[in-house]
Design a protein that fits this description.
Layout (H helix, E strand, L loop, with lengths): L10 H9 L3 H23 L2 H17 L10 H20 L35 H13 L3 H12 L4 H8 L3 H25 L9
Helix pairs in contact: 1-2, 2-3, 2-4, 2-6, 3-4, 4-7, 6-7, 6-8, 7-8
Length: 206
C-alpha cells in the first residue's frame, strides 16, 4: 500500500516497495518529487523542453538502476545527482555551456571572503509586489552559471544540508560552501544593481 498524500508520504517505505517491483510505489515517488526535479532541470538548462527531457530521463534512469540505490542517503539526494548529470549533458550537447564541469575541482579560498551586507532601507514591498520580486529573483538565479545555480537551488531553495548537497552533486563540502558563497555574492550584486537603477540605494540581498 502506497502513500497518497503529502502528510502520509514515507520515502523509505516507498523506495523499499519500488525496489521490490511495486510500480505504484515508484509512481508515488515520481509524483512527490517531479515538480522539484523539473524546476531544478529548468533552472540548469534554461529551456522547458530540455527540462522535460531531463525529468523523464532522470526517473527512467532511477527506475532502471533502483537496485544500485543502497539507502545510505535520501532517495531525493540520489535522483538530484542523476538530474544534474542529465541536465549538464544537455548543455554540453547544445554546446552553449561555458562554465566549468561539476566534476572539476574548485579553489575554496573564497570561503574566507567577508563582505559588508547592508540592510533594507525600507520594506521592499513598499516599492515592489511579491510577484515582481519573485520574477526579479528568478531572472537573477537564471543568470548564474549552472554549477553555482545548482548549489544555490539545493541549499537555499530546497533546503538540503551542505552535506546532502555535496553528496547530490558529487562535490566536497568545502566546494559546496565555496560555490554557494559565490552564488550568493553574484546574486546580491545583480540585485543591488537592479534596485539601484530603480532608485533604491540601500538594497542588498543575502
Amino acid at each position: 500500500m502506497t502513500a497518497s498524500s503529502q502528510a502520509g508520504f514515507d520515502e523509505t517505505t516507498l523506495v523499499t516497495q519500488a525496489r521490490g517491483g511495486d510500480n505504484r510505489a515508484f509512481a508515488e515517488l515520481v509524483k512527490h518529487y517531479e515538480a522539484k526535479i523539473f524546476r531544478l532541470a529548468q533552472h540548469i538548462t534554461q529551456n522547458r523542453e530540455d527540462a522535460e527531457d531531463v525529468l523523464q530521463e532522470t526517473f527512467l534512469k532511477a527506475y532502471e538502476h533502483l537496485d544500485q540505490f543502497q539507502g545510505n542517503s535520501k532517495f531525493y539526494t540520489w535522483i538530484v545527482r542523476i538530474a544534474v548529470n542529465q541536465a549538464l549533458m544537455k548543455l554540453r550537447r547544445r554546446r552553449t555551456d561555458k562554465s566549468v564541469s561539476l566534476d572539476e575541482t574548485i579553489d575554496t579560498g573564497e570561503d574566507t571572503v567577508t563582505r559588508e551586507v547592508a540592510a533594507w532601507g525600507e520594506d521592499p514591498e513598499q516599492q515592489f509586489t511579491r510577484e515582481e520580486l519573485g520574477q526579479i529573483l528568478d531572472a537573477s538565479i537564471q543568470s548564474l552559471a549552472p554549477t553555482y545555480r545548482s548549489v544555490f537551488l539545493l541549499r537555499d531553495v530546497d533546503d538540503l544540508s551542505t552535506e546532502e548537497t555535496a553528496e547530490a552533486l558529487g562535490l566536497s563540502v568545502p566546494a559546496v560552501k565555496s560555490r554557494l558563497l559565490r552564488a550568493r555574492l553574484q546574486l546580491r550584486e545583480k540585485l543591488t544593481r537592479y534596485f539601484k537603477r530603480k532608485g533604491d540605494d540601500t538594497f542588498a540581498y543575502l
